[in-house]
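Q: what sequence does this backbone want?
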C-alpha cells in the first residue's frame, strides 16, 4: 500500500477510483481544480486529503509538476493530461523521486481501425488533436520508462459511461433525442447502414483497471485497452436500447448528408468522428497482465447512464418505463 496522488480526482473516473483506492488501503491525495464534488457520494472520501490546483495556470507558471512531486507520492494517477507539454512538465518534476505514473489515454490513439479487435501493438495512426496528442504522450511516457526515468503505465479507455453525465448514444453522438426516439418507437436515422462501431466502458471498470495497475509491476512500460468485453455496432446498440422499452428499433439508413440535414452539423460531426474510427479494442493484454475483468457490458453501462439522466430530468423518454 502506498501514497497515491490522483489528478482529476472528482471527474468521471476519479469519482470511482478514489473510493476504490481507500478501500484497498492506500493513502489518497485527491487533486482537483475546484470545489466540485465527486459524481456520487462515498464514505471513503472522508479519509482523503483534498488539494485544489489550477493545472493550466500552475503549468504556465512552471509550478504544477513540482507541487505534485512535493506531495511525496509513491504513485501518481493522471486523469487530466492532454498535451505532450503537460506530460513533460509533470515527468520532469517527478524524475528525481520516480514514483509510478499512471496516465489516462484513449483508444483514439489508433485512428481508423484496420484490423479488429485492435491490439495495443497496432501501429499508431491517430488523427485529430485529441487522439494525436494522446499518442504523443504515450510515446513520451514509454520512452521515459525505457531510459530509466519515471516508470509509467498508459491505460486507454473507450467511451466512458456511467451515472452523472451525458454519454455517447447509439447514434454515436450526444443527441439526447436519440433516447426518446428509441423509447417511443419513433424513427431514428443512422449512417453507413448502422455498421459503425462504438466501444463503451463503465467508469467504474476504468477505475478497476487503474487500481489493478498500481500493484502489477509487469504493467510498467506497457499500454492497455480498458473497454467492455465487446464493442457494438450502432444498429446493435439501438436494438439493445429499444428492447429496454419492449420495442424493436425503427431505423432508417441514410447517407451522411441526409443524417446532417435531419440532426444538424454538431451531432453529425460527432457521429462521423466515432464511426470513421470504428475501433473495437481487444482487452486480452489487460486481462492477462492486470487481471482486468469488466463488470459491465456496453449496454449495461449505457442503461445505468440513461437511468440517471432520466431520473435527473436530463433526458425525456416519453414517460416510458424501463
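A:
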Amino acid at each position: 500500500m502506498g501514497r497515491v496522488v490522483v489528478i482529476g480526482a472528482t471527474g468521471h473516473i476519479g469519482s470511482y477510483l478514489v473510493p476504490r483506492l481507500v478501500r484497498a488501503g492506500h493513502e489518497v491525495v485527491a487533486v482537483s481544480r475546484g470545489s466540485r464534488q465527486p459524481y456520487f457520494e462515498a464514505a471513503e472520501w472522508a479519509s482523503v486529503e483534498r488539494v485544489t490546483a489550477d493545472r493550466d495556470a500552475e503549468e504556465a507558471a512552471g509550478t504544477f509538476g513540482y507541487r505534485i512531486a512535493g506531495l511525496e507520492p509513491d504513485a501518481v494517477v493522471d486523469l487530466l493530461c492532454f498535451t505532450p507539454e503537460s506530460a513533460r512538465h509533470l515527468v520532469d518534476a517527478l524524475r528525481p523521486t520516480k514514483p509510478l505514473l499512471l496516465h489516462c489515454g484513449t483508444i483514439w490513439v489508433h485512428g481508423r481501425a484496420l484490423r479488429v479487435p485492435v491490439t495495443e501493438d497496432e501501429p499508431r495512426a491517430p488523427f485529430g488533436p485529441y487522439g494525436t496528442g494522446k499518442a504523443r504522450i504515450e510515446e513520451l511516457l514509454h520512452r521515459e520508462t525505457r531510459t530509466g526515468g519515471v516508470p509509467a503505465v498508459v491505460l486507454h479507455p473507450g467511451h466512458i459511461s456511467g451515472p452523472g453525465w451525458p454519454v455517447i448514444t447509439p447514434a454515436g453522438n450526444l443527441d439526447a433525442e436519440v433516447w426518446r426516439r428509441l423509447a417511443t418507437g419513433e424513427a431514428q436515422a443512422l449512417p453507413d447502414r448502422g455498421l459503425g462501431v462504438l466501444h463503451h466502458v463503465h467508469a467504474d471498470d476504468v477505475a478497476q483497471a487503474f487500481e489493478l495497475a498500481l500493484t502489477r509491476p509487469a504493467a510498467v512500460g506497457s499500454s492497455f485497452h480498458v473497454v467492455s468485453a465487446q464493442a457494438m455496432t450502432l444498429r446493435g446498440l439501438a436494438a439493445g436500447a429499444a428492447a429496454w422499452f419492449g420495442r424493436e428499433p425503427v431505423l432508417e439508413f441514410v447517407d451522411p448528408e441526409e443524417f446532417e440535414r435531419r440532426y444538424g452539423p454538431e451531432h453529425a460531426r460527432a457521429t462521423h468522428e466515432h464511426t470513421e474510427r470504428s475501433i473495437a479494442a481487444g482487452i486480452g493484454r489487460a486481462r492477462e497482465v492486470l487481471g482486468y475483468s469488466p463488470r459491465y457490458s456496453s449496454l449495461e453501462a449505457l442503461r445505468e447512464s440513461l437511468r440517471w439522466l432520466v431520473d435527473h430530468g436530463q433526458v425525456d423518454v416519453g414517460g416510458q418505463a424501463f
